[in-house]
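Title: Comparing notes on inverse folding

I've been comparing how different people in this forum approach sequence design from structure. To keep things fair, I'm posting one structure and asking everyone to reply with a full sequence. Here's the target:
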């Protein structure tokens, strides 16, 4: 009996979140009209404050890695010490150079939002923190993990002003940039006392972010389909008939 080799779809890992990034790309394509129209658009992938620690790096890394392939002007913003995996940042730089886009790293949320067409404020733990956290997890060192969490939360608290609020949104192109998030977002005054995004901004873009999220299961299904079917167009034609 012949056995088909299993196909593995990466739903998320420490380096990338391909299904989320692809869903975000579909959302941008729908919003702006085409992939070609994304060329030259500025997207701000910014760290944002959260009252928790340990959020993965895969979303911001997936965004800077994918959007730089489409000629977009990608600005990565984070406080000092909250850097991503250096190899991923280098990939983003190379992608931007090849696609005719731009990639820069800044240490100001306001600078990243200025004249942006899209903003993606999202909390994450620094790569340096993940490097310390992984061995503690492997050893099952609960006391070490608790101490690291307290240290990181104290450090996060220094940057509570890294919140996507109405004032920062006014810095964007026409004051009407598209707000994006992979959800669930830490919403100030709703899901937490203070978080990634103000309640007013999130409510304004609530339907848009739900639409963004709705593309993800279709992206996953498409990935599985394309991995298993050699001639996807022919197979779809048979299904239609």
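Reply #1:
Here's my take.
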């Amino acid at each position: 009996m012949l056995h088909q080799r299993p196909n593995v779809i990466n739903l998320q890992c420490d380096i990338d979140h391909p299904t989320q990034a692809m869903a975000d790309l579909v959302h941008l394509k729908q919003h702006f009209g085409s992939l070609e129209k994304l060329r030259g658009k500025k997207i701000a992938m910014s760290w944002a404050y959260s009252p928790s620690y340990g959020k993965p790096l895969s979303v911001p890394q997936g965004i800077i890695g994918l959007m730089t392939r489409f000629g977009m002007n990608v600005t990565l913003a984070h406080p000092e010490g909250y850097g991503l995996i250096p190899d991923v940042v280098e990939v983003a730089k190379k992608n931007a150079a090849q696609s005719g886009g731009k990639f820069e790293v800044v240490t100001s949320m306001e600078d990243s939002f200025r004249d942006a067409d899209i903003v993606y404020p999202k909390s994450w733990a620094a790569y340096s923190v993940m490097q310390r956290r992984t061995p503690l997890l492997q050893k099952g060192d609960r006391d070490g993990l608790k101490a690291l969490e307290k240290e990181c939360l104290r450090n996060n608290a220094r940057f509570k002003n890294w919140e996507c609020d109405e004032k920062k949104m006014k810095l964007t192109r026409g004051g009407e940039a598209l707000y994006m998030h992979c959800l669930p977002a830490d919403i100030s005054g709703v899901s937490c006392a203070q978080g990634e995004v103000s309640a007013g901004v999130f409510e304004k873009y609530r339907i848009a972010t739900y639409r963004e999220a709705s593309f993800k299961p279709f992206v996953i299904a498409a990935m599985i389909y394309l991995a298993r079917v050699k001639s996807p167009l022919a197979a779809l034609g048979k299904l239609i008939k």
